[in-house]
Amino acid sequence: MTEQNMIKETDSPQDLAATVAQVRTEVSALHAYLVTYKLVVWTAGNVSARVPGQELMVIKPSGIEYDQLAPELMIVTDLHGVPVDGVDSAHWGNPDLAPSSDTDAHAYVYRHMPDVHGVVHTHSPYATAWAALDEPVPCVLTMMADEFGGDIPIGPFALIGDDSIGRGIVETLRESKSPAVLMKNHGPFTIGPSAKAAVKAAVMVEEVAKTVHIARQIGTPIPIDAEHVARLNDRYMNVYGQ
Ligand SMILES: O=C(CO)[C@@H](O)[C@H](O)COP(=O)(O)O
Questions:
Q1: Is 43 in the pocket of ligand 1 (CB under 6 A)?
Q2: Pocket test residue of 59, 66, 102, 119 for ligand 1, highest count of atoms within 8 A of CB
Q3: DSSP states of 141-184
Q4: Terminus of the chain with fewer CB atoms < 10 Å: N or C?
């Protein structure tokens, strides 16, 4: 283990272990939403969460089926995606378990967007179809103005396996109100102030990508003007809900 991925010594080991245990439980459980909302096939999607106050994140192991996931199988890494051992009693490995193949992308987002506490990636079919076309989903629904504050943008083409996906996500979402980006030829990545918020954005992306696709089969969807988009987004962000 390098000095870089040693745990900070500011929290007591007991507090840190309890926090990590909570994050493990949350990240493991949130994958069920991906299955429930039909956003994933086989093992093609992942959820991660930042460990609050630490240079750490929790992500699922690569290639493990969703019904096998459990808190103790979640992997704790530093914000460069390097697994960190000894954070809590649920030993991160099983040295046979590698973290998700998208770990570098998630880690890059946490390093560069300090307010982001959750990242989700799926290959949900309607959203991914727009990504294959290299076409943003235009803001033609009030639900899109609410949740995304405008069009759902396309991010650049990026190869899997290094920082390029993370860089594409950050460069695109820094310029946008949207918590979702459709990475060209790949699929949606979503972010949120919590892992659950990022999961919700992944569910919403698929829903609106599907509806706008259907609308285009029967006519020409009508864009919502920018002033109305801004007002809808402001109401949703500041007034909607409890
Ligand atoms: O896009 C890819 C690989 O093409 C990934 O999103 C995987 O489909 C999910 O992999 P793991 O999280 O199980 O490594």
A1: yes
A2: 102
A3: SHHHHHHHSS-BPEEPP--TTSTHHHHHHHHHHHT-S-SEEEET
A4: C
